[in-house]
Structure formats: C-alpha cells, structure tokens
Design goal:
The complex is a heterodimer. By secondary structure, chain A is mainly alpha-helical. Chain A has helices at about 1-35, 55-65, 65-95, 105-110, 120-130, 135-145, 155-180, 185-195, 200-210, 210-225, 230-240, 250-260, 265-295, and strands at about 35-40, 50. Chain A is built from 13 helices and two strands. The longest helix of chain A has about 35 residues, at about 65-95. The model of chain A has no long low-confidence stretch (mean pLDDT about 90). Chain B folds into two domains: about 35-155 and about 315-370, D-Maltodextrin-Binding Protein, domain 2 (3-Layer(aba) Sandwich), CATH 3.40.190.10; about 160-275 and about 280-310 and about 400-445, Periplasmic binding protein-like II (D-Maltodextrin-Binding Protein, domain 2, 3-Layer(aba) Sandwich), CATH 3.40.190.10. Chain B has 18 helices and 15 strands. Chain B has a five-stranded mixed β-sheet, with helices on both faces. A three-stranded antiparallel β-sheet of chain B has the order 12-7-13. In chain B, strands 9-10-15 form a three-stranded mixed β-sheet, with helices on one face. Chain B is globular. Classes of the chains: A mainly alpha, B alpha/beta. Chains A and B meet through helix 1, strand 1, helix 11 and helix 12 of A and helix 1, helix 3, helix 4, helix 11 and helix 17 of B. Chain A: It is found in: Cell membrane.
C-alpha cells in the first residue's frame, strides 16, 4: 500500500508541480492583477501608484463596446468556420476510408503537413498570398474577373477562416480517419451484404459510429476559436486595414497590456475570456455526455 | 532497490522542476551580481550592459563601441521596430522586471513609458554640458516634469523622397506646397493609372501627426497640473480634410508602412514617392538597392511655401527602471549620440541616414553617408533645412499608446470608407480624455 502511494506520488508530482507553475500561479497572478489599476497625479510624470479597484477593470472591460464586439467576431467566426472545418475534415476522412482511395498514406501525410507549420509562419505565408501585386493567387483571381480584397474589413473573416482551415483541416481529418479505421469491419461487411452502397454506408453506418470523435473535434474547435489571435494579429500588422488591433478578445487583452500599458484591464479581459471558455466547455461536455447516454 | 529508486527519481524530478521554474522566473538581463553593481566599470572589472534597439546600423555602433574601450561591454539584442512589436516587448519586459539596461524609444512613446513609471530619471547624467550638445527641441522632448528621461539620438525632420526618373518621365514638378502636391498626385495618376505619388499609412499615425505638427497644431499642452487636449482646431481640421480628400480621390495608396504590399509597390514603380523623415533615407536605400541613383530627396511640402517641418519618429535611448547600471548605460548612450566615432560607425554601415540631434556631428554624418543612391545629392543639406524649421511647442501627451492605438484602428477603416480621418481624430481624442481621467489626471478638452 505504502509503495503504491509512493509510486502514485512519484508519477503525479511532476504533473502537479508543472500544473501549479504554468497554470495555477499565472491564473492566480492574472486574477490578482485584474483587481488593481494605476493612478497618477500632477501631469503624470511622477510615476504611478497601484491602487485596488475591486471589479473596476471588469466593469470597464464589459462596458467597452470594442471588447464586447470581439465576442461577436468570434461568434461569426465559429458560425463560418466550424461547419466548413468539420464538414471538410469528415468528407476527406470518408474519402480516404472508402474503398476507392489509393495511396492513402500519401494523402494522409500530405493533408496533415500544413499542421506541422507553426501558426505564425502560416499566417505570414498567407499574408503574402493575400497581398495584391505580390500574390499569384490574387492576380489569378483578378484576371479571372474576381476582385476580392482579402485585406478589406469585410474580407478579413474569410481570409482568417481560410488560414485556419488550411492549418487544421488535415489534423482533424486524421482524428476522423483514425476513428473510421477503428470501426469493426464486420459491421461494414454486414452493411454491404444487406445491400448498402458507399453513400448509405458512410451516412448510416460510419458517421453515427464516430459521433464521439465529431463532438470532440467540435468542442476543441470552439475552445480553440476563442483563442483566435495569431492570424488576425499578423493580418493587422501586415495590412493595417483588415482588422483592428482589438478585433478578438485575446487581441483586446494584448493591446490593452502592451500598447496601452493597462495591465489591470488586460488581466480582467483575459479572466473574462477564460471564464467564457470554461462555461462553454462545461455546456458542450454536458450536452454531449447526455446524448451519449441516451444513444 | 525499488524503494530507493523511486525516492531518487522523486527527488530528481522535484529538483529538476523546481530548477526549471526558478530559472524561468529569473529571466534575463539581471546579471548584476558579477558586475558589483553600477558605475562605469574598469578594464579589470568591466560592466556588462544589455541594449535593445532596431534602428539601422545599431549593431555596427555596438561593435565599434566594444572595440573602442574595455570598461563597458554592450550586448546588443535586435528587436522588431517599435510599431511592429518592439514596444510590446519593452512593456512586457518592464512589467516583468527583466528589461535590458538601455532601450530605444521614439519621442512620441517616451511620455507614456515615463508616466507608467517604466524608466529611470537620468537627470544626474544629463549635465548641462551634455544638453548643450543637442538641438534644443530634442532636449525639450526628452524633458518631462523637469527631469531628463532619455538621451536623444536623431532629430527626424520630415522629408519627401521621390523617384526622380519617373517624375521627369511623367513631367511632374517636385511639389513645394500641399496644393502643388495634390496637383502632382493627380498628374502622376493620370500619367500612369497604376502609379501613385505617395501613401497614407493606416498603421502609423505618427506620420499623420507629423503633418499636423508641421502645420502648427498642438494637440497636447501641459498647463499647471492640467492636460489640455485640442484636436478640433482649424489647423488639424485643414490637414485632416486634405488627407481625407487624397484618400477618397484615390490620389495616394493606402498600405501599411514597410509592409510587403508597400515595398512591392515601390519596387514595381506603383508608388513613386514617400513622405517620411530623415531616417527614411537609409531605409529606402537598403530596401531598394536595385533603384540606386533613381531617388532624390526634397523638403516636405508646406502649407504656405515657407519651410516648416514636424518630427516623425526619431530615436532616444532610455534606461528601464529595473536596471542597476544606469550610469554605464547612459555613458554608452552618450557615446552613440554625441561622438564622431559613434555616428560614423552607424552611418558607414550604409543602411542609416540618421540626422543627429547633436549639432556638431552633422558634418561627420554627412561625410560618412554614401549618397550614390540619391545620385550624389547632398541629402543632409535637405535635412539641415528641415531640422531648423521644426515647429516648436509640440508636446506628446502621456497616453500616446491609447491615442495612437485608437487612431490606428480607425485609420484602418478609412480606405474602405468605414471611417473618416476627422472621425478617427475625434475617436482618438475621446479615448485619450477617458484614459487620462481613468488614471486620475486632470484633463480639459
């Protein structure tokens, strides 16, 4: 028994040490920071004094239209992005899993490859591909009569959804493909014997059987979407026009801290964003959990 | 055996994680223990200082300094330019108490950092003989609340860079006034429907603010203990309406400064002019080496034809609050800004066309600059004229971060018609007043 406790402690300690150091302490520090603000006197050149403001930063963040609009941006992004992402990844996975597919290994790797590119590099590559006068894509579109401006405020959302799809489609496809591979082959054979064609098998047999994976991907994608930061930030500095510096809540926090030097406000905005993410995760897991039991 | 194994592993794992945590918290920049703190150092016991910057030719300056003496050793770390993330990095490091001993900061951003308590008062190192070496406006801009917070480096008068060959080809005269500039802009567009005379930079409000400064506006004024903010004066309105017109009529391009789009348009001759400042001379030269000999520099156009200039950017060097080596850091900063060796090292790099704020260094700077990119033109003479016409009395407010972030966000929507330049100024004004009020400062406007 004692040895067992010790073994458990050995295995768990590194986790809890790291968890405390890189999760709990920073979160605690952010909450602490969010309760304070800086006050100055005279013309403001005598340095500043940190004063307790209670929930002042929270009301300031919630009262700021720019911050609230950030959540609307995220909503629009999710509505646009999640169906495309899940639909696309499912379609690709089903194609790979179908009997018709050749060179499965190759396509698996090729589709996954963009995910190996760090987000910031991906965003910079796409920045070039979006820049008029520089991008072969834009000039091809122009000669084809499509005058789409990726850097206009209305073009920003599609531009960013496109980058995200490029980065994540292959990754989620691999998850779906693995789930499809795990389906008992005898079930599929039975379906074939019963006369189900490729489409029927895909929609009536395969999809219901990998529902758990689909829900997991949706959950992760929603949480990931809340963190939207790198791609719009690169687009902001690279174009100056597509998105504002506080376009998403994460960017709002970044700008508050590092452009406006208001760390209290930034911390409050971050805590609010984290709470939203926690709440959403809770709701989605509860919903999916219940459905799973009923099935 | 089993027991001892697990115990050892446990302690190793514990120690390793603790160590990782400690080193991660310790961060960089603070190696004062080995240097016995402050002072100017000696050859036997040199002081090591760390310096962040992005201005062209900085690495060459640091190398020259390290080679010239043994008392102070400078480690240079290149950061992105302020707007492109350099300031975010500095703010972050100051907050985390691991900022370097010396940072580059432009005049507009200095008051913001000072008001946040991010920098040290270096008045005792900026003695009157040091002050006397600089252009009075540069000292004025770095003196806040009666104390010195930074050593000024360059003066950054505005200038107009243009493609001489294409101006001749299109039959366009170099504009002396803003009216002529508009006419010239229309002429360029007419001669080549793809070409434009210049650019409105939505991402860089300081370019626009320099135009307002040049025209004679004073957005921020300190009176007693009250900040007076005035952005609705006739001068500001005139400049805002003028630029709104240029953007609306498509007479200028709208691209982020130094972005791939902007650079590409210069390379392809789609942009044939640049309303910048003295330091832009080196930037153009290093960005467009293949266009050597095709560029020229003219004084910035003015409203009444008489010389007038604002200041666009311009670097100063400041000591973050956590540094324990302010004396060595300012010593090095003074070397960079006031010695001939310092300026020569920077300009000989071939990438810098800095116009020193230290008056005595200008002949040396001019001599070190290879002007073949400008067909041998004496560009320092243009800067000299611009420098002596910098309008006095402009002050930057203590919340430039808020003012300029708001301006930038609004300017981004101007080209698409989602905002106007006068509207953007109004939004920035309101945001600034709100920010100052939030900080507990008295503000009128």
């Amino acid at each position: 028994m004692k040895a067992r406790t010790r073994a458990a402690a050995t295995l768990l300690t590194p986790f809890f040490v790291l968890f405390t150091a890189v999760m709990l302490i920073p979160i605690g520090y952010a909450v602490w920071l969010s309760l304070f603000t800086e006050q100055q006197s005279g013309l403001g050149f005598g340095g500043s004094e940190t004063v307790f403001t209670g929930l002042g930063n929270y009301t300031a963040a919630l009262g700021d239209r720019v911050f609230r609009d950030g959540f609307l941006v995220l909503l629009g992004y999710c509505v646009f992005y999640i169906p495309l992402m899940v639909g696309g990844a499912l379609a690709l996975a089903l194609l790979l899993d179908s009997a018709l597919a050749r060179a499965k290994r190759f396509f698996q790797l090729a589709l996954f490859l963009p995910h190996a590119v760090p987000g910031i590099i991906a965003a910079m590559i796409w920045l070039y591909l979006y820049t008029p006068g520089l991008s072969p894509v834009v000039s091809a579109m122009h000669s084809g009569g499509i005058g789409f401006d990726f850097f206009s405020p209305s073009g920003a959302l599609p531009s960013i959804v496109n980058i995200a799809l490029w980065e994540w489609l292959g990754y989620n496809m691999v998850i779906f493909y693995a789930a499809l591979q795990a389906i008992d082959r005898s079930v599929l054979e039975a379906a074939t014997v019963d006369g189900a064609g490729g489409w029927r098998t895909a929609f009536s047999i395969k999809l219901p059987l990998i529902r758990a994976s689909v829900l997991m991907v949706v959950l992760f994608t929603i949480i990931g979407s809340l963190q939207l930061f790198t791609e719009p930030l690169i687009l902001n500095t690279g174009s100056g026009s597509a998105v504002s510096s506080s376009w998403t809540p994460n960017m709002y926090a970044y700008t508050a801290a590092f452009s406006r030097n208001d760390f209290g406000l930034a911390a409050a905005a971050s805590v609010l964003l984290a709470l939203t993410a926690a709440l959403l995760s809770f709701v989605v897991t509860r919903l999916t959990g219940r459905k799973g039991k009923n099935a | 055996m089993n027991r001892s194994w697990s115990r050892t592993t446990l302690s190793i794992a514990g120690a390793a994680t603790a160590l990782a945590v400690l080193t991660a918290c310790g961060g960089s920049g603070d190696d004062s223990s080995s240097d016995a703190g402050g002072g100017k150092g000696t050859a036997a016991k040199p002081v090591n200082i760390t310096f962040w910057g992005w201005a062209k030719g900085t690495k060459e300056v640091v190398d020259a300094y390290n080679a010239s003496q043994k008392n102070i050793h400078v480690t240079f770390e290149e950061t992105p330019s302020g707007n492109a993330g350099g300031y975010a990095k500095i703010s972050n490091a100051i907050k985390a108490n691991n900022a370097p001993d010396l940072v580059s900061v432009e005049y507009p951003q200095l008051p913001e950092y000072v008001s946040q308590g991010g920098f040290q008062d270096i008045s005792k190192y900026v003695t009157s003989d040091v002050k006397a070496k600089f252009l009075p406006q540069a000292i004025e801009q770095t003196t806040l609340g009666g104390k010195n917070w930074a050593i000024p480096f360059d003066a950054a008068p505005q200038a107009f860079f243009y493609r001489k060959d294409l101006f001749t080809k299109y039959g366009v005269e170099v504009p002396k006034t803003w009216d002529e500039f508009k006419t010239a802009a229309a002429k360029v567009k007419k001669a080549d429907s793809k070409a434009r005379i210049g650019t409105f930079f939505p991402d860089d409000p300081t370019t626009f603010q320099a135009m307002v400064w040049q025209a004679g506006a004073q957005w921020f004024k300190a009176e007693g203990t009250t900040w007076k903010i005035n952005t609705t004066d006739a001068t500001t309105t005139k400049v805002a309406d003028y630029w709104q017109g240029l953007v609306k009529d498509g007479l200028v391009r709208s691209d982020a400064s130094f972005s791939p789009a902007w650079t590409n348009s210069l390379k392809t001759g789609a942009t044939i002019g640049y309303l910048g400042a003295s330091w832009g001379g080196g930037v153009m030269k290093s960005t467009l080496p293949e266009q050597s000999g095709k560029w020229a520099v003219a004084p910035i156009p003015t409203w009444d034809g008489k010389p007038a200039s604002g200041m666009l950017g311009g670097t100063t060097f400041a000591v973050p609050k956590n540094s324990k080596k302010a004396e060595a850091a300012t010593e090095f900063a003074k070397w960079m800004t006031t010695t001939e060796d310092g300026i020569k090292a920077r300009i000989s790099s071939g990438t810098s066309s800095a116009f020193p704020a230290a008056l005595a260094l200008r002949p040396a700077a001019k001599k070190a600059f290879d002007a073949s990119f400008y067909g041998g033109q004496d560009i320092y003479q243009v800067f000299e004229a611009g420098g002596s016409s910098i309008k006095q009395g402009w002050t930057w407010g203590p919340a430039t971060g808020t003012t300029n972030t708001t301006l930038k966000d609004q300017f981004g929507k101007v080209a698409g018609g989602g905002a106007t330049i006068p509207g953007a100024i109004k939004a920035a004004h309101d945001a600034t007043v709100a920010e100052l009020t939030k900080r507990g400062l008295k503000v009128e406007g």
